[in-house]
Design brief:
This protein has about 900 residues and is α/β, with parallel strands linked by helices. It has 41 helices and 14 strands. Helix content is about 55%, strand content about 5%. A five-stranded parallel β-sheet has the order 2-3-4-1-5, with helices on both faces.
């Protein structure tokens, strides 16, 4: 089963309907072969020619002809009829020219032939439609729902007999593992195979040796490890291009052609040569390219970066090239002494990664703090853009340990940045101590303004707005003297917030207008957006309707500019305004947007503030228990007074409460917040309803539909009796206890099964050796089924197991039915699947026992009587489902009861 590629399968099928040659390109391990085979399976009569085992170009034509059923290509051109046919040419890259020649002759001579090729670079033929295949989509934060990469990892782990646990830590580890593996299907499948002996967190810990950890002994050689998959392309690079690729591994984020030339090129390398090498690497799918702001930005997936760095270390060039890269960053940022210019590329997490990597290198290798001092200022910009502050804290503390003397060059900058980042996560006391030490050290104007900014927040959060106002005014004077309008604008914005906290609203409004005007004049993007946010919040106090319109427009602009720390607070105020006019659904929609904005960037403080606001909204609609849990998770997180103005009637005064350092909310509280918001936004009840032959399953604001099945009737009965145990014979409809009927499988049948198992094992080995995944999957499916049957038929010591009485047969059949139903629910409604799996218990006694009461509406129409028995009885809570005595008895998947005979095993 191909996981997570439904849209690609549909798009590729559409391309093949209009183009006779379609080539799927992508990095090794991205799933080109699997996609092509999945498409071919649903296409007109198709044949597949596997070129990976064709070692010489002159063998390509004969291999293709043999696949088509002819002794030579000439015979194929003469003998191929007018019937439509799809030829899949898999793995063309190592014989690309010969493959292109063969395809060109075939398309000219066979009018009804269509070719689907897979290659790490296009064939470069006329009318070729190239389809680049990207890795699977990654999870957002620790939320694993709806991520194809996570779905593949979980599915393949389950196929191998291991169900991964998605509790708080488990979900975070799975999400992190998928991100570290770039969503590459091959890497995820190799990792899934390792879950038999390692947890996802343990696999993550071993990923520095990923090419050894993620491997297998069977299958095509190029797919037995990540090293082999990447090496398949790398080994075919010319040596100068291979060395150039290795050097690109020092870039932690994206880079331009000029940067690649400065860092990875040899002395005297021309810009044209660099452009050719980059083009070659893009064509080989070894680097990625993205056009933005009129420039091309290149990058490496983490798996490829690790490969390149390993090769660079082997060449003995890593230190030299890494130093060259740090020098390039310093040179780029030299023109912005106040740290207001974004790092190369864009001020995003990618830029932060590169900047922090360079600072760590300086702390570990430099004798003087000069380079680190020129780089460290720019970490402010990436935090402004929403990147997590915790890595900045770690690097800042490293720099202070490396150069601990307050009189040392750049020490005030290191301390000021560290204090700033500590304040962002609300470790306010330590932040204030560092800030005061900075001011005492006689700092540069930049460090002084940053320290005063930290003290401003320290006093404002402690409920001392008059003191915070004085800090802001000192910082404004310094920024004005330093001719730094961006910083001056930001501090004027904060001064407006302090004035508002003192209830001097007219002065606050004028200050916000001035801050905005200065930022516009200076062309300072983030300070302008921040000033707009403050001014619009002030506007909303006097004119909520105009404020709402302006905030909506500003939120759209902030999203486009990638300013999450402006976009999210817009939705805080919009939600408060909605609640003030009694529109709880609109309030919930805005808070849901804010929650996802901050979950995406992983920023703890605004996430906790959002949880505080959600708690108040949830309390308004009467869910007091959930509100209490959300308040506890939010802690003492609070922000600027103006952001919370629209909520002032509901939020408690926390200014007398010491501010705790922020921590990321766990997955369970985030899931709870999403459920509560969904229930308010779309108050569809939790519903399990059968209409005719289709079930409608409504949960957490979403409805999915499934065709009728007996396991769904079993679940419906359990949901209608939460917390009550239901005997498996009742679910099956067995009215009378029946005795043992003999062995599950007799001796003759067992011998036949065992012989077939041996045949299938041979077929599987041969299919995997030839890379025939379709044949291998068919053999593996039948083999698994037979092994399950034999296992279920064997008792202790290998003795034949007897079928048991009706209770044993009912237990087995019901367990199998419910597990099958849960797998189907997982596919169409993952949130409901995650809720049901831990809550449903199967065995002799079955039960639905959720952690929190859901209040299901369960109904089954009369038209379902052919499947469920008496439809009228099914509509009444507490009645058993219809008679399923005609259901086939399947001993596989039977649950094992606990000693008390009360069904200890869980489904799934």
């Amino acid at each position: 089963m191909l996981v997570g590629r439904d849209s690609e399968i549909a798009a590729l099928g559409e391309f093949l309907a209009h183009h006779r040659l379609v080539t799927v390109t992508g990095v090794g391990g991205v799933g080109k072969t699997a996609l092509a085979r999945a498409v071919a399976a649903g296409a007109p009569p198709s044949v597949t020619c596997e070129l990976a085992e064709v070692g010489r170009p002159d063998e390509v034509a004969d291999a293709v002809a043999a696949t088509l059923g002819f002794p030579s290509l000439a015979a194929a051109l003469l003998g191929t009829g007018r019937d439509r046919r799809l030829l899949v040419l898999d793995n063309c890259e190592h014989v690309r020219d010969a493959a292109a020649d063969t395809v060109e002759r075939l398309l000219d001579g066979c009018a009804e032939l269509t070719v689907l090729a897979t290659s790490r670079e296009p064939l470069d033929l006329p009318d070729e439609r190239v389809v680049p295949l990207s890795p699977l989509a990654l999870p957002s934060g620790d939320d694993v729902a709806g991520s194809p990469a996570v779905d593949l990892l979980l599915t393949r782990a389950r196929d191998g007999g291991h169900e991964l646990v998605l509790d708080g830590d488990g979900a975070a580890a799975v999400a992190a593992l998928c991100r570290r593996l770039d969503g590459l299907p091959l890497a995820l499948e190799l990792a899934a195979a390792r879950t038999r002996s390692l947890t996802p967190a343990e696999i993550l810990a071993h990923l520095d040796s990923r090419h050894a950890v993620l491997g297998r002994s069977r299958g095509p050689r190029r797919h037995r490890s990540l090293d082999a998959a990447i090496g398949w392309s790398y080994d075919r690079l010319p040596e100068p291009t291979a060395r150039f690729f290795d050097r690109l591994g020092v870039f932690a984020g994206r880079f331009t052609a000029d940067e690649a030339r400065a860092v990875a090129g040899d002395a005297g390398t021309s810009a044209l040569t660099v452009a050719d090498r980059l083009d070659h690497l893009v064509g080989q799918s070894l680097i990625t390219v993205r056009q933005q702001d009129g420039r091309s930005w290149y990058g490496l997936l983490e798996t490829l970066r690790s490969f390149a760095r390993t090769r660079l270390v082997q060449r003995g060039e890593f230190d030299e090239v890494h130093d060259r890269w740090v020098d390039r960053l310093v040179e780029q940022m030299a023109g912005s002494p106040w740290g207001t210019a974004p790092p190369a590329g864009s001020a995003t997490r990618s830029a932060q990664t590169g900047l922090l990597d360079a600072l760590r290198w300086c702390a570990a290798h430099d004798r003087t703090p000069e380079r680190a001092g020129r780089l460290v200022r720019h970490t402010v910009v990436v935090v402004h853009h929403g990147a997590r502050p915790e890595p900045v804290i770690a690097v800042g503390e490293d720099l202070l340990r490396r150069w601990p003397d307050p009189g040392a060059q750049s020490w005030p900058e290191f301390a000021a940045i560290t204090a700033f980042a500590h304040m962002v996560v609300r470790s306010t006391q330590h932040a204030a101590e560092l800030a005061r030490a900075v001011i005492a050290a006689g700092p540069s104007p930049f460090a002084a303004v940053l320290a005063l900014r930290t003290l401003y927040f320290h006093d404002l959060l402690a409920g001392r707005p008059a003191a915070s106002l004085r800090w802001a005014e000192r910082a404004i004077a310094l920024a004005d003297d330093g001719d730094e309008p961006g910083w001056a604008s930001e501090m004027r914005t904060f001064r407006a917030s302090a004035l508002a906290a003192l209830n001097r609203l007219d002065e606050a409004g004028m200050q916000a207008e001035e801050a905005h005007a200065r930022a516009v004049t200076a062309g300072s993007g983030f300070p302008e957006a921040l000033a707009s946010l403050t001014g619009t919040n002030l506007l909303a106090i006097d004119d909520p309707d105009r404020g709402r319109t302006t905030l909506t427009r500003l939120a759209r602009r902030a999203r486009a500019a990638e300013y999450p720390l402006v976009e999210g607070p817009c939705h805080w105020t919009l939600a408060g305004l909605a609640l003030r006019r009694g529109d709880t659904a609109d309030a919930a929609r805005n808070l849901a947007v804010a929650l996802e904005v901050f979950a995406r960037i992983g920023h703890a403080v605004p996430l906790q503030v959002t949880l505080r606001l959600i708690a108040e909204l949830v309390d308004v609609v009467g869910h007091t228990d959930s509100a209490a849990a959300l308040r506890e998770a939010a802690g003492t997180a609070r922000t600027l007074t103006l952001y919370e103005w629209a909520w002032r009637d509901r939020l408690p005064d926390l200014t007398a409460t010491p501010v705790r350092s922020a921590t990321m909310p766990d997955r369970r509280i985030m899931a709870s917040a999403r459920r509560e918001l969904a229930a308010i936004t779309d108050p569809v009840p939790a519903r399990f309803r059968l209409d005719g032959a289709v079930w409608s399953l409504s949960f957490a604001g979403r409805t999915a539909r499934l065709p009728d099945a007996k396991g769904l009737h079993d679940l419906a009965t359990l949901l209608s009796r939460p917390g009550r145990e239901v005997r498996c014979t009742e679910l099956l409809g067995a009215a009378v206890e029946q005795p043992d009927t003999g062995e599950v499988i007799d001796a003759q049948a067992r011998r036949s099964y065992e012989a077939r198992v041996r045949e299938l094992q041979e077929d599987l080995t041969e299919a995997e050796g030839h890379g025939d995944r379709g044949r291998a999957e068919a053999a593996r499916t039948e083999l698994d089924l037979l092994v399950d049957q034999l296992t279920a038929a064997a008792g202790l010591g290998g003795r034949p197991r007897r079928s048991g009485g009706s209770t044993e047969r009912a237990r087995s059949a019901v367990t199998q039915r419910i597990r099958a139903a849960l797998r189907r629910i997982d596919d169409v409604h993952p949130a409901l699947g995650r809720h049901l799996r831990p809550a449903v218990r199967t065995g002799t006694w079955c039960c639905y026992g959720p952690e929190h009461d859901v209040g299901w509406e369960v109904s089954r129409s009369r038209r379902s009587s052919s499947t469920a028995g008496d439809g009228e009885r099914d509509n009444r809570p507490g009645t058993p489902p219809g008679d399923d005595r005609g259901a086939p008895e399947d001993p596989r998947g039977a649950g094992r009861d606990d000693p008390a005979g009360r069904g200890a095993d869980r489904s799934g």
